[in-house]
Amino acid sequence: MDNSFENVSLLWLEHNRFYWKESTYTKYIFITKNISKIFCDCMIEEINSKRIQQTVNNILLCNLMSVTTVKTYVSVINNVLAFAYDNDYDCVDHIKIILPKQQKSELKILTQKEQKALTTFLTKNIDLTKLGVLFALYTGVRCGELCALKWGDIDLYNGFVSINKTMQRVQCTDETGKTKIIITPPKTPNSNRIIPLPKFLISILKSFNPNNENSYLLTGSDEKFIEPRQAQNIFNRCLSDCKISKINFHALRHSFATRCIELGMDYKTLSEILGHASVSTTMNLYVHSSQEQKRKQMNKLNSLVKI
């Protein structure tokens, strides 16, 4: 029996592949291959907390990976070990390591002034690609969800959009090293959702008068699509035209959530619109107090002082 980590991880992958989405499967193939390279044909029984801790320390010391990436790799190692242990391999069932605390990075969002400038630019120069940016900004959909969206998913009469799929580029599972585009169900079951559309957006959507429900929203074609990487490039050009600093496409989702909170939307409603499993996820990840909001709240203290 081949007790190498590489072989056991292949068995683990094969055991679970039909329970995972294709994107998850290909991600784990990539990670297990990298782990096998790091440990150079290490036997499964040689994997222990001390060895992994020393390796992790060296990786972090040399800035070869982020703490977040290391956490993901360690999680995969633990999953492989648990699988091996349950299948009577002579190994530990898990490892424990210590990682440095991560500083929580502040996610960038559009200020109200930037959002107004971007909205004006998009509406004055509207086409299908700019419509996509506007749509993301005022619905909070993820980039992959937007790219997979078809006109048939939008009910202009009742004024809502059905989010039921996502698009992403993944690594092929063969040895070619190539990638491919796949369209799958959304990120989680909660991501399957129906979002009411604001009236101004419905009016703009109606102006395009689509005649093919199978055509993609961003292209108007049922064969040609725009993938997330291209959507980011389109967004970058819009930002440049508006003299706004470059930010990730996902910042549109953050900005949407923040504006909704500023306008008084209740957290439960926002959580469901975003497709989160719980309100706490929405609060922790996507609601950010902007500088202008902080200033507005701090200025309330002026009422306490008379000069």
UniProtKB/TrEMBL annotation:
Keywords: DNA recombination, DNA-binding
Keyword set includes DNA-binding: yes
InterPro entries given in the database record: DNA_brk_join_enz, Integrase-like_cat_sf, Integrase_catalytic, Integrase_recombinase_N, Tyrosine_recombinase_XerCD
Record Gene3D superfamilies: 1.10.150.130, Intergrase catalytic core
Name of the protein described by the UniProt record: Site-specific recombinase XerD
Annotated source species: Eubacterium coprostanoligenes
PANTHER family with a match to the protein in the record: PHAGE INTEGRASE-RELATED, PROPHAGE INTEGRASE INTD-RELATED
Family in the record: Belongs to the 'phage' integrase family.
Keyword Lipid metabolism: no
Pfam family, one: Phage_integrase
Molecular function via GO: DNA binding
